[in-house]
Amino acid sequence: AAYNVAIAGATGAVGETFLQILEERNFPIAELKLLASKRSVGKELTFKGKTYKVEELTHDCFEGVDIALFSAGGGRSLEYAPSAVKAGAVVIDNSSAYRMDKDVPLVVPEVNPEDAFKHKGIIANPNCTTIIMLVALKPLYDYSKVKSVVVSSYQSTSGAGAQAMEELMNQTKAWAKGEDITVEKFAHQILFNVIPHVDSFTDNGYTKEEMKMFNETRKMLHDDEILVSATCVRVPTLSAHSESVTIETVDPISPEKARELFAKAPGLQLLDDPSNNKYPMPLFVAGGDDCFVGRIRTDISRPNSLAFWVVGDQLRKGAATNAVQIAELLIK
Ligand code: A2P
Ligand code: 11C
Q: Is this prediction's ipTM beyond 0.90?
């Protein structure tokens, strides 16, 4: 069988990655519809060597669509996903709009594939930072319940969209030419800087991005006791998010055991040979679908604690690949 697929937000950073992933994984597509704002109507995008014209995202553009992949911002998801469902499509939504809705499954195929089948038309794709952490956390969690997680992220500019990534490149070029640096997408200059601020701040002092890691982890692990304290930081890299993670478990997990569990885990590659300078880094992880884990060690500040470092391409596994894997689950 082949399916009619629509991509809402096809011209964005995640949208373009959707096209690459669908092509690489040879997803069975009958008809493909590329949707974006009015500004992009007529723009041409290529898929499997064929040119497609971008159409406007509207309430009645979903007729005949089986699977609609949304990544055009939460506002657009809230407005148009119900129209897609009404037209008979299953929506896989990459925004944060529906993630905590109790009628909407939140799914990482390596973590909770069974939840995907409980959908009522919409399935949510978690936040990229949560996905990357959970791909590594799940094999440990299955071995011993995890009580708490302390995580700091090092998030690439493309996490904030194609234009945000361009801002880093433009600031770099401007600096090299001795010109003034323009700041638009981030609260501060990102070149030569790190910004401890991703998404907006909430009343408890954490940002929304940090609270997504708390809430989404609980929802996907079906565990309302696990505690997650995150500090999310934007760094001047282009692609792939890195995370320093420390967990406290009920039963102790030695670094050797953790390496064994990580090595067997789906979607995860072990790269942990620090004496030869081998550990995951965004420059080398970007462009692939697997997350990489390394720097595995016993945390010496608390009992039953383990520290590790995990890196994943947030546009691929953190967004497009995960969404396409969900679609693959549904059609299997
Ligand atoms: P457009 O390129 O026409 O603005 P990114 O996350 O990389 O910034 O991409 C956002 C995506 O969401 C783009 O494809 C963008 O289309 C799309 N988008 C933004 N606003 C709207 C809108 N009002 N209606 C439809 N698509 C939108
Ligand atoms: C970032 N994680 O890197 C964000 C982007 O909730 O889907 C994705 C935000 C979200 O800026």
A: yes
